Amino acid sequence: MRMSPAGTSAPGKRAAVVGAGPSGFYATEQLLKHGFEVDLYDALPTPFGLVRAGVAPDHPKIKSVTRVYTKTASNPSFRFFGGVTLGTDVTRDELLARYHAIVYAIGTATDNRLGIPGEDRPGSHPATDFVAWYNGHPDFADQQFDLNGGRAVVIGNGNVAIDVARMLVLDPAELAPTDTADHAITAFGMAGVSEVVLLGRRGPAQAAFTNPELRELGELERADVIVDPAQLAGVSVPEDGDTTKRRNVEILRDYALRAPSGKSHRLELRFLRSPLEILGEGDDGPVTGVRVGINELSADGTRAVATGAEEVIECGLVLRSIGYRGTPLPGIPFDSARGLIRNEGGRVRSEIDDSPCPGEYVVGWIKRGPSGVIGTNKKDANDTVARIVEDEQADALGVPDPSLATAAAVKDWIDQRVPDHVTWRGWEAIDTHESTLGESTGRPRVKLVRLDDLLRASRDG
Ligand code: NAP
Protein backbone atom coordinates (compact mmCIF):
# COMPACT_ATOMS: atom_id res chain seq x y z
CA MET A 1 0.00 0.00 0.00
CA ARG A 2 1.30 3.45 -0.89
CA MET A 3 1.29 5.95 1.93
CA SER A 4 1.44 9.72 1.90
CA PRO A 5 3.74 11.51 4.36
CA ALA A 6 0.75 12.01 6.65
CA GLY A 7 0.22 8.25 6.79
CA THR A 8 -2.93 8.33 4.72
CA SER A 9 -3.50 6.46 1.48
CA ALA A 10 -4.09 7.72 -2.08
CA PRO A 11 -1.50 10.46 -2.67
CA GLY A 12 -2.22 12.21 -5.94
CA LYS A 13 -5.59 10.52 -6.30
CA ARG A 14 -8.45 12.76 -7.32
CA ALA A 15 -12.14 12.41 -6.52
CA ALA A 16 -15.26 14.19 -7.72
CA VAL A 17 -18.14 14.26 -5.27
CA VAL A 18 -21.40 15.17 -6.97
CA GLY A 19 -23.87 16.78 -4.58
CA ALA A 20 -22.94 19.11 -1.71
CA GLY A 21 -25.50 17.97 0.84
CA PRO A 22 -24.65 16.17 4.09
CA SER A 23 -23.68 12.84 2.51
CA GLY A 24 -21.51 14.63 -0.08
CA PHE A 25 -19.73 16.59 2.64
CA TYR A 26 -19.18 13.53 4.86
CA ALA A 27 -17.75 11.63 1.87
CA THR A 28 -15.55 14.65 1.07
CA GLU A 29 -14.29 14.81 4.67
CA GLN A 30 -13.29 11.13 4.60
CA LEU A 31 -11.72 11.30 1.15
CA LEU A 32 -9.60 14.29 2.20
CA LYS A 33 -8.58 12.39 5.31
CA HIS A 34 -7.40 9.55 3.10
CA GLY A 35 -5.28 11.88 1.00
CA PHE A 36 -7.56 12.45 -2.00
CA GLU A 37 -7.91 15.82 -3.66
CA VAL A 38 -11.64 16.49 -3.83
CA ASP A 39 -13.72 18.59 -6.22
CA LEU A 40 -17.26 18.94 -4.87
CA TYR A 41 -19.88 19.70 -7.53
CA ASP A 42 -23.42 20.94 -7.00
CA ALA A 43 -26.13 21.95 -9.45
CA LEU A 44 -26.97 24.93 -7.21
CA PRO A 45 -24.60 27.84 -6.64
CA THR A 46 -24.97 27.14 -2.90
CA PRO A 47 -23.77 24.17 -0.85
CA PHE A 48 -25.42 22.11 1.94
CA GLY A 49 -28.31 20.45 0.04
CA LEU A 50 -31.24 19.65 2.32
CA VAL A 51 -29.62 21.44 5.27
CA ARG A 52 -30.24 24.68 3.36
CA ALA A 53 -33.30 23.67 1.35
CA GLY A 54 -34.97 20.93 3.42
CA VAL A 55 -34.45 21.29 7.17
CA ALA A 56 -37.27 23.36 8.63
CA PRO A 57 -36.22 27.00 9.11
CA ASP A 58 -37.46 26.99 12.71
CA HIS A 59 -34.84 24.31 13.49
CA PRO A 60 -31.65 26.42 13.41
CA LYS A 61 -29.74 24.04 15.70
CA ILE A 62 -29.97 21.27 13.10
CA LYS A 63 -28.70 23.70 10.48
CA SER A 64 -25.61 24.54 12.57
CA VAL A 65 -24.07 21.28 11.25
CA THR A 66 -22.92 23.41 8.30
CA ARG A 67 -20.04 24.57 10.53
CA VAL A 68 -18.58 21.06 10.26
CA TYR A 69 -18.94 21.16 6.46
CA THR A 70 -17.34 24.60 6.31
CA LYS A 71 -14.35 23.25 8.22
CA THR A 72 -14.06 20.43 5.67
CA ALA A 73 -14.11 23.05 2.92
CA SER A 74 -11.10 24.83 4.46
CA ASN A 75 -8.82 21.91 3.48
CA PRO A 76 -6.39 23.09 0.75
CA SER A 77 -7.14 19.93 -1.27
CA PHE A 78 -10.85 20.88 -1.51
CA ARG A 79 -12.56 22.84 -4.30
CA PHE A 80 -16.25 23.66 -4.85
CA PHE A 81 -17.81 23.91 -8.29
CA GLY A 82 -21.31 25.26 -7.66
CA GLY A 83 -23.86 25.76 -10.41
CA VAL A 84 -22.54 22.78 -12.39
CA THR A 85 -25.11 20.11 -13.25
CA LEU A 86 -24.12 16.52 -13.97
CA GLY A 87 -26.06 15.39 -17.02
CA THR A 88 -26.37 18.81 -18.65
CA ASP A 89 -23.18 20.84 -18.01
CA VAL A 90 -20.89 17.84 -17.63
CA THR A 91 -21.32 14.14 -18.35
CA ARG A 92 -20.49 10.96 -16.50
CA ASP A 93 -17.86 10.05 -19.13
CA GLU A 94 -16.20 13.45 -18.81
CA LEU A 95 -15.90 12.98 -15.04
CA LEU A 96 -14.58 9.41 -15.49
CA ALA A 97 -11.86 10.81 -17.76
CA ARG A 98 -10.77 13.24 -15.03
CA TYR A 99 -11.07 11.47 -11.67
CA HIS A 100 -9.98 8.21 -10.03
CA ALA A 101 -13.23 8.14 -8.08
CA ILE A 102 -16.64 9.73 -8.57
CA VAL A 103 -19.02 9.71 -5.63
CA TYR A 104 -22.67 10.35 -6.45
CA ALA A 105 -24.33 12.15 -3.54
CA ILE A 106 -27.30 13.54 -5.41
CA GLY A 107 -30.04 12.67 -2.93
CA THR A 108 -33.60 11.87 -3.92
CA ALA A 109 -35.01 14.70 -5.97
CA THR A 110 -38.68 13.87 -6.29
CA ASP A 111 -41.65 12.56 -4.32
CA ASN A 112 -43.54 9.28 -4.19
CA ARG A 113 -46.94 9.29 -5.87
CA LEU A 114 -50.20 8.20 -4.24
CA GLY A 115 -51.63 7.05 -7.56
CA ILE A 116 -55.17 8.20 -6.72
CA PRO A 117 -57.65 10.28 -8.77
CA GLY A 118 -57.29 14.03 -8.39
CA GLU A 119 -53.68 13.87 -7.20
CA ASP A 120 -52.63 16.64 -9.62
CA ARG A 121 -55.48 19.06 -9.00
CA PRO A 122 -54.49 22.66 -8.27
CA GLY A 123 -54.01 22.82 -4.51
CA SER A 124 -52.61 19.27 -4.22
CA HIS A 125 -48.82 19.39 -3.94
CA PRO A 126 -45.93 17.18 -2.98
CA ALA A 127 -44.77 18.29 0.46
CA THR A 128 -41.24 18.26 -0.97
CA ASP A 129 -42.19 21.20 -3.27
CA PHE A 130 -43.68 23.11 -0.33
CA VAL A 131 -40.53 22.51 1.74
CA ALA A 132 -38.29 23.70 -1.11
CA TRP A 133 -40.51 26.76 -1.59
CA TYR A 134 -40.49 27.97 2.01
CA ASN A 135 -36.75 27.26 2.19
CA GLY A 136 -36.02 29.48 -0.82
CA HIS A 137 -34.78 26.83 -3.28
CA PRO A 138 -34.38 28.84 -6.53
CA ASP A 139 -36.21 26.21 -8.63
CA PHE A 140 -39.30 26.50 -6.42
CA ALA A 141 -39.38 30.21 -5.59
CA ASP A 142 -42.13 30.91 -8.13
CA GLN A 143 -44.44 28.10 -7.07
CA GLN A 144 -47.83 29.17 -5.78
CA PHE A 145 -49.58 27.62 -2.79
CA ASP A 146 -53.13 28.68 -2.04
CA LEU A 147 -53.07 29.16 1.73
CA ASN A 148 -56.52 30.75 1.89
CA GLY A 149 -58.65 27.66 2.51
CA GLY A 150 -59.41 27.22 6.19
CA ARG A 151 -58.26 23.60 6.37
CA ALA A 152 -55.22 21.80 4.97
CA VAL A 153 -54.74 18.03 4.84
CA VAL A 154 -51.23 16.60 5.12
CA ILE A 155 -50.93 12.97 3.99
CA GLY A 156 -48.22 10.86 5.62
CA ASN A 157 -46.86 10.20 9.10
CA GLY A 158 -43.16 10.99 8.75
CA ASN A 159 -41.07 13.93 9.95
CA VAL A 160 -41.55 15.83 6.69
CA ALA A 161 -45.32 15.68 7.25
CA ILE A 162 -44.77 17.07 10.75
CA ASP A 163 -42.51 19.83 9.39
CA VAL A 164 -45.02 21.06 6.81
CA ALA A 165 -47.97 20.77 9.22
CA ARG A 166 -46.07 22.80 11.83
CA MET A 167 -44.97 25.44 9.33
CA LEU A 168 -48.62 25.94 8.35
CA VAL A 169 -49.67 26.85 11.88
CA LEU A 170 -46.56 28.64 13.21
CA ASP A 171 -47.21 32.09 14.56
CA PRO A 172 -45.66 34.86 12.40
CA ALA A 173 -43.65 35.81 15.51
CA GLU A 174 -42.15 32.30 15.52
CA LEU A 175 -41.27 32.58 11.83
CA ALA A 176 -39.86 36.11 12.02
CA PRO A 177 -36.42 35.20 13.46
CA THR A 178 -35.86 32.33 10.97
CA ASP A 179 -34.31 32.13 7.51
CA THR A 180 -37.64 31.19 5.91
CA ALA A 181 -37.68 32.68 2.39
CA ASP A 182 -39.20 36.18 2.39
CA HIS A 183 -41.91 35.18 -0.12
CA ALA A 184 -43.02 32.40 2.25
CA ILE A 185 -42.98 34.65 5.33
CA THR A 186 -45.29 37.04 3.48
CA ALA A 187 -47.58 34.21 2.33
CA PHE A 188 -47.72 32.58 5.79
CA GLY A 189 -48.44 36.00 7.31
CA MET A 190 -51.55 36.37 5.13
CA ALA A 191 -52.58 32.70 5.25
CA GLY A 192 -56.07 31.67 6.18
CA VAL A 193 -55.22 28.08 7.13
CA SER A 194 -56.40 27.63 10.70
CA GLU A 195 -56.68 23.85 10.80
CA VAL A 196 -54.35 21.10 9.65
CA VAL A 197 -55.34 17.43 9.58
CA LEU A 198 -52.43 15.00 9.44
CA LEU A 199 -53.39 11.59 8.04
CA GLY A 200 -51.59 8.30 8.74
CA ARG A 201 -52.60 5.16 6.90
CA ARG A 202 -51.58 2.97 9.84
CA GLY A 203 -51.99 3.46 13.58
CA PRO A 204 -50.33 5.60 16.25
CA ALA A 205 -47.81 2.84 17.03
CA GLN A 206 -46.66 2.64 13.39
CA ALA A 207 -46.08 6.35 12.71
CA ALA A 208 -42.58 7.19 11.39
CA PHE A 209 -42.25 10.38 13.47
CA THR A 210 -39.28 10.77 15.79
CA ASN A 211 -40.03 11.76 19.40
CA PRO A 212 -38.70 15.36 19.55
CA GLU A 213 -40.56 16.26 16.34
CA LEU A 214 -43.85 14.80 17.62
CA ARG A 215 -43.36 16.42 21.03
CA GLU A 216 -42.85 19.83 19.41
CA LEU A 217 -46.43 19.73 18.10
CA GLY A 218 -47.64 19.97 21.69
CA GLU A 219 -45.67 23.18 22.26
CA LEU A 220 -46.93 25.36 19.42
CA GLU A 221 -47.73 28.98 20.28
CA ARG A 222 -51.03 29.28 18.50
CA ALA A 223 -52.19 25.73 17.68
CA ASP A 224 -53.85 23.13 19.87
CA VAL A 225 -52.85 19.58 19.02
CA ILE A 226 -55.87 17.28 18.79
CA VAL A 227 -55.93 13.48 19.01
CA ASP A 228 -59.22 11.61 19.45
CA PRO A 229 -58.70 9.37 22.53
CA ALA A 230 -60.63 6.58 20.79
CA GLN A 231 -57.68 6.22 18.41
CA LEU A 232 -55.39 5.22 21.25
CA ALA A 233 -57.72 2.60 22.70
CA GLY A 234 -55.93 -0.74 22.84
CA VAL A 235 -52.77 0.70 21.25
CA SER A 236 -49.46 -0.27 22.81
CA VAL A 237 -45.86 -1.03 21.95
CA PRO A 238 -44.31 -3.88 23.94
CA GLU A 239 -41.60 -3.00 26.51
CA ASP A 240 -38.99 -4.71 24.37
CA GLY A 241 -40.33 -3.10 21.18
CA ASP A 242 -39.11 -0.03 19.30
CA THR A 243 -38.42 2.71 21.87
CA THR A 244 -39.16 5.57 19.48
CA LYS A 245 -42.54 4.11 18.61
CA ARG A 246 -43.34 3.40 22.27
CA ARG A 247 -42.55 7.01 23.20
CA ASN A 248 -44.59 8.25 20.23
CA VAL A 249 -47.60 6.41 21.63
CA GLU A 250 -46.99 7.95 25.08
CA ILE A 251 -46.80 11.44 23.56
CA LEU A 252 -49.99 10.85 21.55
CA ARG A 253 -51.72 9.54 24.68
CA ASP A 254 -50.79 12.78 26.42
CA TYR A 255 -52.24 14.77 23.49
CA ALA A 256 -55.44 12.71 23.59
CA LEU A 257 -55.91 13.65 27.25
CA ARG A 258 -55.56 17.38 26.60
CA ALA A 259 -58.62 19.56 26.33
CA PRO A 260 -58.24 22.18 23.56
CA SER A 261 -57.05 25.41 25.18
CA GLY A 262 -58.86 27.68 22.74
CA LYS A 263 -55.86 28.59 20.57
CA SER A 264 -56.70 30.10 17.20
CA HIS A 265 -55.35 27.11 15.22
CA ARG A 266 -55.76 23.33 15.42
CA LEU A 267 -53.51 20.52 14.32
CA GLU A 268 -55.27 17.16 14.36
CA LEU A 269 -53.61 13.75 13.98
CA ARG A 270 -55.94 11.17 12.44
CA PHE A 271 -54.78 7.57 12.06
CA LEU A 272 -55.90 4.56 10.02
CA ARG A 273 -56.89 6.79 7.13
CA SER A 274 -55.89 6.31 3.47
CA PRO A 275 -56.64 8.95 0.86
CA LEU A 276 -58.75 7.47 -1.94
CA GLU A 277 -59.40 10.55 -4.04
CA ILE A 278 -58.54 14.25 -4.02
CA LEU A 279 -61.88 15.95 -4.62
CA GLY A 280 -62.70 19.04 -6.65
CA GLU A 281 -64.96 20.25 -9.44
CA GLY A 282 -64.63 18.48 -12.78
CA ASP A 283 -61.37 16.87 -13.76
CA ASP A 284 -59.09 19.74 -12.94
CA GLY A 285 -60.90 22.10 -10.57
CA PRO A 286 -59.04 23.10 -7.42
CA VAL A 287 -59.04 20.89 -4.35
CA THR A 288 -62.18 20.94 -2.24
CA GLY A 289 -61.53 17.91 -0.09
CA VAL A 290 -60.14 14.42 0.31
CA ARG A 291 -62.18 11.21 0.22
CA VAL A 292 -60.59 8.99 2.80
CA GLY A 293 -60.88 5.26 3.44
CA ILE A 294 -60.91 4.11 7.04
CA ASN A 295 -58.51 1.24 7.77
CA GLU A 296 -57.82 -1.31 10.42
CA LEU A 297 -54.47 -2.88 11.11
CA SER A 298 -53.58 -6.33 9.86
CA ALA A 299 -53.21 -8.85 12.68
CA ASP A 300 -49.42 -8.48 12.69
CA GLY A 301 -49.72 -4.68 12.65
CA THR A 302 -47.66 -4.27 9.49
CA ARG A 303 -50.38 -3.37 7.00
CA ALA A 304 -53.35 -1.04 6.73
CA VAL A 305 -56.43 -2.98 5.65
CA ALA A 306 -59.45 -1.10 4.25
CA THR A 307 -62.66 -1.54 6.27
CA GLY A 308 -64.80 -0.18 3.44
CA ALA A 309 -65.92 2.78 5.55
CA GLU A 310 -65.15 6.24 4.19
CA GLU A 311 -65.24 9.89 5.19
CA VAL A 312 -64.75 13.17 3.36
CA ILE A 313 -62.49 15.86 4.80
CA GLU A 314 -63.15 19.23 3.22
CA CYS A 315 -60.04 21.30 2.61
CA GLY A 316 -58.44 23.78 0.23
CA LEU A 317 -54.87 22.45 0.33
CA VAL A 318 -53.40 18.95 0.24
CA LEU A 319 -49.72 18.27 0.92
CA ARG A 320 -48.66 14.73 0.02
CA SER A 321 -45.80 13.70 2.26
CA ILE A 322 -45.27 10.01 1.62
CA GLY A 323 -41.52 9.92 1.08
CA TYR A 324 -38.91 11.08 -1.39
CA ARG A 325 -37.75 9.17 -4.45
CA GLY A 326 -34.53 9.21 -6.48
CA THR A 327 -34.44 10.09 -10.17
CA PRO A 328 -32.03 8.56 -12.71
CA LEU A 329 -29.07 10.46 -14.15
CA PRO A 330 -28.10 9.94 -17.78
CA GLY A 331 -25.93 6.84 -18.16
CA ILE A 332 -25.69 5.99 -14.46
CA PRO A 333 -27.01 2.53 -13.51
CA PHE A 334 -30.38 2.93 -11.81
CA ASP A 335 -32.68 0.59 -9.91
CA SER A 336 -36.07 2.00 -10.92
CA ALA A 337 -38.01 -0.29 -8.60
CA ARG A 338 -36.24 1.20 -5.56
CA GLY A 339 -35.50 4.65 -7.02
CA LEU A 340 -31.76 4.32 -6.25
CA ILE A 341 -28.44 4.19 -8.10
CA ARG A 342 -27.62 0.47 -8.48
CA ASN A 343 -24.96 -0.33 -5.92
CA GLU A 344 -23.64 -2.83 -3.48
CA GLY A 345 -22.27 -1.28 -0.30
CA GLY A 346 -21.69 1.99 -2.16
CA ARG A 347 -19.92 0.52 -5.21
CA VAL A 348 -21.98 1.30 -8.33
CA ARG A 349 -22.89 -1.83 -10.28
CA SER A 350 -23.73 -2.22 -13.94
CA GLU A 351 -27.36 -2.65 -15.06
CA ILE A 352 -26.18 -5.06 -17.74
CA ASP A 353 -24.17 -7.71 -15.91
CA ASP A 354 -24.11 -6.45 -12.31
CA SER A 355 -20.32 -6.02 -12.46
CA PRO A 356 -18.77 -3.17 -10.45
CA CYS A 357 -18.31 0.09 -12.37
CA PRO A 358 -14.67 1.02 -11.59
CA GLY A 359 -14.27 4.44 -10.05
CA GLU A 360 -17.99 5.03 -9.39
CA TYR A 361 -19.48 5.13 -5.91
CA VAL A 362 -22.60 6.36 -4.18
CA VAL A 363 -23.54 7.73 -0.75
CA GLY A 364 -26.60 9.01 1.10
CA TRP A 365 -30.26 8.77 0.13
CA ILE A 366 -29.54 7.87 -3.50
CA LYS A 367 -27.54 4.87 -2.18
CA ARG A 368 -29.84 3.52 0.52
CA GLY A 369 -33.16 5.39 0.20
CA PRO A 370 -34.59 8.46 1.93
CA SER A 371 -34.31 7.45 5.58
CA GLY A 372 -32.51 8.47 8.72
CA VAL A 373 -31.38 11.80 10.10
CA ILE A 374 -28.48 13.95 8.90
CA GLY A 375 -25.96 12.11 11.08
CA THR A 376 -26.95 8.76 9.52
CA ASN A 377 -25.15 9.95 6.39
CA LYS A 378 -21.82 10.15 8.20
CA LYS A 379 -21.55 6.40 8.79
CA ASP A 380 -23.02 5.77 5.35
CA ALA A 381 -20.35 7.95 3.70
CA ASN A 382 -17.58 6.43 5.84
CA ASP A 383 -18.67 2.96 4.65
CA THR A 384 -18.50 3.96 1.00
CA VAL A 385 -15.14 5.72 1.40
CA ALA A 386 -13.78 2.57 3.10
CA ARG A 387 -14.67 0.72 -0.16
CA ILE A 388 -12.91 3.43 -2.17
CA VAL A 389 -9.78 3.05 -0.05
CA GLU A 390 -9.94 -0.77 -0.46
CA ASP A 391 -10.19 -0.30 -4.22
CA GLU A 392 -7.32 2.18 -4.17
CA GLN A 393 -5.15 -0.36 -2.36
CA ALA A 394 -6.15 -3.03 -4.87
CA ASP A 395 -5.43 -0.70 -7.82
CA ALA A 396 -9.10 -0.98 -8.77
CA LEU A 397 -10.08 2.68 -8.94
CA GLY A 398 -11.05 4.40 -12.18
CA VAL A 399 -8.30 5.13 -14.71
CA PRO A 400 -8.56 8.77 -15.83
CA ASP A 401 -6.71 10.33 -18.74
CA PRO A 402 -3.46 11.73 -17.22
CA SER A 403 -3.59 14.81 -19.45
CA LEU A 404 -7.08 15.72 -18.16
CA ALA A 405 -6.83 14.54 -14.55
CA THR A 406 -4.96 17.44 -12.99
CA ALA A 407 -6.38 20.18 -10.81
CA ALA A 408 -5.35 22.81 -13.37
CA ALA A 409 -6.83 20.95 -16.35
CA VAL A 410 -10.14 20.45 -14.53
CA LYS A 411 -10.28 24.12 -13.60
CA ASP A 412 -9.71 25.16 -17.23
CA TRP A 413 -12.40 22.72 -18.37
CA ILE A 414 -15.01 23.98 -15.87
CA ASP A 415 -14.04 27.63 -16.52
CA GLN A 416 -14.84 27.05 -20.18
CA ARG A 417 -17.88 24.82 -19.72
CA VAL A 418 -19.65 26.83 -16.99
CA PRO A 419 -17.98 30.26 -16.90
CA ASP A 420 -20.22 31.53 -14.09
CA HIS A 421 -19.77 28.54 -11.78
CA VAL A 422 -19.42 29.40 -8.10
CA THR A 423 -16.26 28.61 -6.15
CA TRP A 424 -16.11 28.22 -2.36
CA ARG A 425 -14.99 31.83 -2.17
CA GLY A 426 -18.04 32.74 -4.25
CA TRP A 427 -20.27 30.87 -1.78
CA GLU A 428 -18.58 32.72 1.11
CA ALA A 429 -19.52 35.98 -0.63
CA ILE A 430 -23.15 34.81 -0.94
CA ASP A 431 -23.09 33.74 2.71
CA THR A 432 -21.76 37.14 3.83
CA HIS A 433 -24.32 38.93 1.69
CA GLU A 434 -27.25 36.90 3.06
CA SER A 435 -26.03 37.09 6.67
CA THR A 436 -25.57 40.86 6.43
CA LEU A 437 -29.11 41.24 5.09
CA GLY A 438 -30.35 39.19 8.08
CA GLU A 439 -28.42 41.10 10.74
CA SER A 440 -30.66 44.16 10.89
CA THR A 441 -33.76 42.03 11.53
CA GLY A 442 -32.18 39.49 13.88
CA ARG A 443 -32.40 36.66 11.36
CA PRO A 444 -29.55 34.24 10.62
CA ARG A 445 -29.77 35.27 6.96
CA VAL A 446 -32.12 36.54 4.29
CA LYS A 447 -31.89 33.98 1.52
CA LEU A 448 -31.38 35.02 -2.06
CA VAL A 449 -33.84 32.91 -4.04
CA ARG A 450 -33.08 33.93 -7.63
CA LEU A 451 -30.18 32.33 -9.48
CA ASP A 452 -29.21 35.70 -10.96
CA ASP A 453 -29.02 37.28 -7.52
CA LEU A 454 -27.01 34.36 -6.15
CA LEU A 455 -24.53 34.53 -9.02
CA ARG A 456 -24.22 38.31 -8.70
CA ALA A 457 -23.56 38.02 -4.95
CA SER A 458 -21.01 35.25 -5.57
CA ARG A 459 -18.99 37.55 -7.81
CA ASP A 460 -18.38 39.89 -4.86
CA GLY A 461 -15.99 37.16 -3.75
P1 NAP B 1 -40.84 8.73 6.02
O1 NAP B 1 -40.28 8.92 7.39
O2 NAP B 1 -40.40 7.52 5.27
O3 NAP B 1 -42.44 8.74 6.14
C1 NAP B 1 -43.24 8.49 5.04
C2 NAP B 1 -44.68 8.34 5.52
O4 NAP B 1 -45.49 8.22 4.36
C3 NAP B 1 -44.94 7.11 6.38
O5 NAP B 1 -45.82 7.46 7.41
C4 NAP B 1 -45.62 6.15 5.40
O6 NAP B 1 -46.54 5.26 6.01
C5 NAP B 1 -46.40 7.15 4.56
N1 NAP B 1 -46.81 6.60 3.29
C6 NAP B 1 -46.04 6.02 2.34
N2 NAP B 1 -46.80 5.67 1.29
C7 NAP B 1 -48.07 6.02 1.58
C8 NAP B 1 -49.29 5.93 0.90
N3 NAP B 1 -49.36 5.39 -0.31
N4 NAP B 1 -50.42 6.38 1.50
C9 NAP B 1 -50.35 6.95 2.73
N5 NAP B 1 -49.22 7.07 3.43
C10 NAP B 1 -48.08 6.62 2.85
O7 NAP B 1 -40.48 9.94 5.04
P2 NAP B 1 -40.30 11.51 5.24
O8 NAP B 1 -41.25 12.09 6.21
O9 NAP B 1 -40.29 12.04 3.84
O10 NAP B 1 -38.86 11.66 5.85
C11 NAP B 1 -37.69 11.20 5.15
C12 NAP B 1 -36.54 11.04 6.15
O11 NAP B 1 -36.10 12.35 6.57
C13 NAP B 1 -36.94 10.30 7.40
O12 NAP B 1 -35.88 9.48 7.81
C14 NAP B 1 -37.17 11.41 8.40
O13 NAP B 1 -37.02 11.04 9.74
C15 NAP B 1 -36.09 12.40 7.98
N6 NAP B 1 -36.45 13.76 8.43
C16 NAP B 1 -35.99 14.12 9.66
C17 NAP B 1 -36.35 15.35 10.17
C18 NAP B 1 -35.85 15.73 11.54
O14 NAP B 1 -35.04 15.01 12.11
N7 NAP B 1 -36.33 16.81 12.12
C19 NAP B 1 -37.17 16.21 9.45
C20 NAP B 1 -37.63 15.82 8.20
C21 NAP B 1 -37.26 14.56 7.70
P3 NAP B 1 -46.14 3.72 6.28
O15 NAP B 1 -45.21 3.76 7.45
O16 NAP B 1 -47.43 3.08 6.53
O17 NAP B 1 -45.44 3.24 5.03
Detailed description of the structure:
It is a single chain. The chain folds into 2 domains: 14-109 and 326-421, NAD(P)-binding Rossmann-like Domain (Rossmann fold, 3-Layer(aba) Sandwich); 112-323, FAD/NAD(P)-binding domain (3-Layer(bba) Sandwich). Helix content is 31%, strand content 21%. It has helices spanning 22-33, 49-53, 60-63, 66-73, 92-96, 127-134, 159-169, 172-175, 182-190, 211-216, 243-257, 365-368, 376-393, 407-417, 424-439, 451-459, and strands spanning 14-18, 37-42, 78-82, 101-104, 110-111, 124-126, 151-155, 195-199, 223-226, 265-270, 273-280, 287-297, 304-314, 317-320, 324-325, 334-335, 340-341, 343-344, 347-349, 356-362. Helix 6 (127-134) packs across helix 7 and helix 15 (424-439) crosses helix 16. Residues 1-7 have low confidence and may be disordered. The structure holds NADP nicotinamide-adenine-dinucleotide phosphate (NAP). The site of NADP nicotinamide-adenine-dinucleotide phosphate (NAP) has 26 residues, from helix 7.
